[in-house]
Design a protein that fits this description.
The protein has 3 helices and 5 strands, in the order ααβββββα. With 93 residues, the protein is an alpha+beta fold. The longest helix is centred in the first third of the chain and has 20 residues.
Length: 93
């Protein structure tokens, strides 16, 4: 499902217009991004938890040249789904 398909699905399920739904989705995503950029976790009940984690620096070896490279530390977003979501996904297979 892409962005437009999500907007269309939410428009069909609610009484809001396509433009209103698009603005709501944009505001929701923006709020999540703002919280994550401040290194706060975001929990969406019934869905899961987004959190920012720091990946430590590490050494990689290029398999072709055998040259060692230092990869600097960086921040990454991690998502952990709720157990109920995992169970629902596994029961639909």
């Amino acid at each position: 499902m892409n962005h437009q398909e999500l907007i269309n699905e939410l428009t069909n399920r609610t009484k809001y217009s396509c433009k209103e739904v698009s603005e709501l989705v944009g505001a929701t995503v923006s709020a999540i991004i703002n919280e994550l950029s401040e290194e706060n976790s975001v929990t969406i009940s019934g869905f899961g938890n987004f959190e920012v984690r720091k990946k430590l620096e590490r050494v990689l070896i290029n398999p072709t040249t055998k040259q060692r490279m230092l990869v600097p530390p960086k921040m990454v977003v991690n998502f952990k789904p709720y157990t109920s979501l995992k169970e629902k996904m596994n029961s639909e297979k």
